[in-house]
Design a protein that fits this description.
The protein is of the alpha/beta class. The chain has eleven helices and six strands. α5 packs across α7 and α10 crosses α11.
């Protein structure tokens, strides 16, 4: 949670990499602050429990790097990145999250994130990421880059195909999907063939699994 006056008083800094940390889980927030604070070349200048607090603290403290969770209340990580970069286009933001679908990664990068790490990344990788982003680099792990590339390489689904996919994920039959969307079963099958081709899958089960991994449906 935001640390009140003690956090704000840190905004002066001491010539080290000044880091703002935002996460709605207090144990994660305190753990990150402790790890970063022990580094001789870093200091934590602010701690926020949601995206709105992160934006406010960014404006107040002007940190060198912000470390943001993706899923936060009030304002999520992507929204916070967008607002921070509206205020300061050169802002350096690292996303630290448990979410690794290509949709999540893509949204964060498009919003302006300079780094994207998963929370199970080794401590050394996290600290190295902060240093590299501070130095002006963009840091995304090779596995996440591959996932993002595979997602971008695929032709996007149409709005109707996403509707069909959503109903498919709910276990609806072709007939039920057709009834719900006011289209014939033949049309449903046509949409399914297109969905299978775009997701590079062969069955309904694989389609739902692939769509879930990419963040297209919520199971």
């Amino acid at each position: 949670m935001t640390q009140g006056s003690s956090t704000h008083s840190l905004c002066d800094g001491t010539g080290t990499i000044r880091v703002l940390v935002a996460d709605d889980h207090v144990t994660v927030l305190e753990g990150l602050a402790s790890i970063i604070g022990r580094q001789p070349d870093m200091e934590v200048v602010g701690q926020a429990a949601n995206g709105r607090e992160a934006v406010e603290l960014w404006g107040r403290c002007q940190p060198d790097v912000a470390l943001l969770d993706l899923r936060m209340p009030v304002l999520d990580g992507v929204g916070a990145i967008e607002e921070i970069r509206q205020r300061q286009p050169s802002a350096r933001v690292v996303v630290l999250t448990t979410f690794d679908t290509d949709a999540d990664i893509s949204m964060a990068i498009k919003a302006g994130a300079k780094g994207y790490l998963l929370k199970d990344a080794p401590r050394e990788e996290l600290l190295a990421c902060i240093r590299k982003v501070y130095a002006g680099e963009t840091v995304i792990s090779p596995s996440l880059v591959a996932k993002l590339a595979s997602g971008l390489a695929n032709e996007p689904l149409t709005g109707r195909e996403l509707e069909v996919l959503g109903l498919l994920a709910k276990g609806r039959s072709n007939k039920e999907i057709g009834t719900h969307l006011y289209i014939g079963e033949t049309t449903v099958k046509s949409h399914l063939r297109s969905i299978f081709a775009k997701l590079n899958v062969l069955s309904r089960t694989e389609a739902v699994a692939a769509a879930s991994r990419r963040g297209l449906v919520q199971l």
